[in-house]
Amino acid sequence: MNPGSLPKPPRLRLRVTATAESIVRSGHPWLFADSVKEQNRAGEPGELAVIYDRKDRFLAAGLFDPHSPIRVRILHAGKPQTINREWWRARLDQALARRRGLFDDQTTGWRCINGESDGWPGLVLDRYEDTLALKLYTAAWLPRLDELIDLLQGENLTRSELLPPAPRLVLRLSRNLQRLAQTQFHKSDGQIIHGPPITAPVIFLETGLRFEADVLRGQKTGFFLDQRENRRRVEALSHGRRILNAFSFSGGFSLYAARGGARSVTDLDISPYALQSSTRNFSLNQSHPAIAVCRHETAQADAFEWLEQNHAKKFGLIILDPPSLAKRESEKAGALRAYARLATLAIRSVGPGGILVTASCSAHVTADEFFQIVRQSAAQSRRQFSELQTTGHPPDHPAAFKEGEYLKAIT
User: Fold this and answer.
1) Which of 69, 178, 366, 372 has the fewest other C-beta atoms within 10 Å?
2) pTM for this prediction
3) Is the domain of 331 the same as that of 393?
4) Tens digits of per-residue pLDDT, 174-199?
């Protein structure tokens, strides 16, 4: 018998605990390994798993990942559906439709697909000008890469202004996938899987400002697109002020502040690479008069230590946008203490009539917990203050389930 005539294995069937049944019915996109009670055979990464309830009725279908505690990423729950190329095309259309009308020609960088919240579990797709950065968080997508490339090169691109007509496609992989991707699928983080090579960072527009995105090696997919709306708010608050941008990364907040009429901007980051990127981004925008006259300085240091040692320096607006301080639930208590300390140190350096903008991207810290920490720090400072606003996710980064709610900011 030749390999082509071998019978296909039976469909991968799972039964789950009663608790998991309820969770799946409620629309949650994750099924954990310890919720699986029965499995008819071993499954392969990316295989479509069908989940049945206790009465042997269809419950849901999703992508199987034997290497992850999240054993199945749910694609659909309810009545059975045929999941084929047309189904995926319709789901891509739905994700793009949610973003239609959000951007004009002054912005050429945004999120096209936001994982589970757009019905593409464990997958993120960001656009930077003519480049698409595809980031995977589960091995389930690795054997489906050819299908993804075909879909993203298909007719959707010609009928949607949200995707470039002939995109370069860059593969980004979460750290836990990189070894498996290399050994079993011959794919690596930062690999260009379609289109011409990259010899320099990709330059894109955001609200008329030019930024570089290191789509090959940069954090996330090369830039923090999710802070766009908060950057716009900082611009409106910056006129005539001295600005400190702590955890500045590539200076996104700083450029908006400079264009908003800030007298000076100090970028503070522990990474020399980040500060170099910030300097280059300022150079890209020197044609704007307000940016050209704004004094731009950089400070390479740990933000906690720098704020502690430079408390005599006063600023009219301080931005705190640290990386995730709680990547797992066990780190939550320490993160809350760190947020409180950061807020306390920053408030001490905010001059009279000044403003503090502080954000958290830790999914394990809720918005209410984070806001309460900042409010308590402000109250304990014994300074008069008023709260201007709180914000969450921008519209191109929807959060449709609890674990997807990571971003929050308070001013």
Assistant:
1) 69
2) 0.93
3) yes
4) 999 999 999 999 999 999 999 999 98
